[in-house]
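[scheduler] slot 2 assigned
[scheduler] job type: sequence-to-structure, two independent chains
[scheduler] chain ordering preserved from manifest
[runner] begin chain α
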Amino acid sequence: MINDSVEVIEIYPRIFVYRNFFADPQKNYEILKESTTNNEDRFFTEWTQWSRFGDYLNPAAPHLTSSLDLRELEEIDAKTPLQQIQKDFLKELITGFYEVSEDYVKRMSDELKFDINEQTEVRDEKGQKLLRWRPHGVSICRYHKDTKLIDPNIDQHKRAMMYHSDYIREPLVSPGYKFTITVLAYINDDYENGEIDFAVNGKLFKYKPKAGDFLVFPSGHPEVLTSDGDVYLHSVVEPKNEHKYFARMYWQRYSEGDQEWFDKENEFGKDTWLSMQDEIMENFRKDYHKDLK
């Protein structure tokens, strides 16, 4: 449960900002900046390349390869003072993730129709959890400043990431876990630009995060939290002058998959149908991104 000091703002329908959760955002910023220079005495994993636009810690700490809770984190030993500092940072981040998620789900209860605490334990007849936190736990990310990514078709600002939803759309929905809620935690705000830009049902809304913000919004799952059936898309404006640090976390909901998916499995064979997906998805994405323009 979030405490009274946390400010909750609905900046756009179904998009919420939770402010003042972190005890010391500047300290967290320094922890992440210093972590890029110390590759030996660390609790975090090492920074690795994240596409063309940044770096990330994914997972953020060793052995975090399954849905993460605080008990699991506590069981991982911190052997030095620096490792303890980084571990405490993760504990504060994950605590915030659970608390803002719980509040968000309560506010959106009429549309989501699930309870985080109950449905992370409830399983279907195949033993699948109905809801889970994304595997690999939390990713800590860093957008590079001043990259060379330019798309003149959108606006004058460079884009670190183009319009998309975290839910990966498919021509036929496969069985499995699908993104439902996205939770982002912003560590610093000392860069220029760097806004997150939403496109919803033909409307645009841009927000510049403040250091310490948690931002919660629909991931694009077509069954929940849509605007007149249209999913929430977002892009990110490139930061200038300083790197942009943030963490990303997700809730996923299990989908049984379309009947047509299983019809295709029967037609081609399960393994063959699965091997066809890379080409199918590549063509689908090309057509989909044409529609976005």
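[runner] end chain α
[runner] begin chain β
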Amino acid sequence: MELGIGGLKELRKAEIVQTAGRGTLTIKIDGNSYEVTLLKVATSEIEFILKNKYYRAKVIQSETHETTLLIHTNLIAIRTHPGMQEILKRSLSVDERGEGGDKDVKSQIPGRVVNVVAQEGLSVKKGDPIVVLESMKMQVAVKAHRDGIIKQIKVAQGDTVARYDIVAILD
């Protein structure tokens, strides 16, 4: 069946066979089993590695027992458990989910620090910017994930940070 919408290929069926923790699961596509390593699970997208290749899938539709993903130009419908989104998130560590620890403020992306907005001793509210990163010609603020007082700033202007690097510590 050819879909003919913007070059989309036929809808393929997949099934999650097993979760192994630490963001690893086994899926079956067209009768073949594959090991998938999840990098990020969000309501609108999923990042993963399959056969040593990075993929970003857009969640097109998510229903009780099936989720439809768009991967490049392929539509894939995955039969799922009703709470699969939460199961997948729980299989990732806190670092892999990017939710940060209780005190650590972590970078969500790799980049170069272009501005340190907060100072040690400053009181911040959830959502207040701490530092500003530049990545791929875009500037992105790393924000506080909870209310608190800045105990330590771990970066300086010009520093390069990786994804999940700690940029500040809250008290």
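[runner] end chain β
[qc] chain β: The chain has two domains: 12-96, 100-170.
[scheduler] slot 2 released
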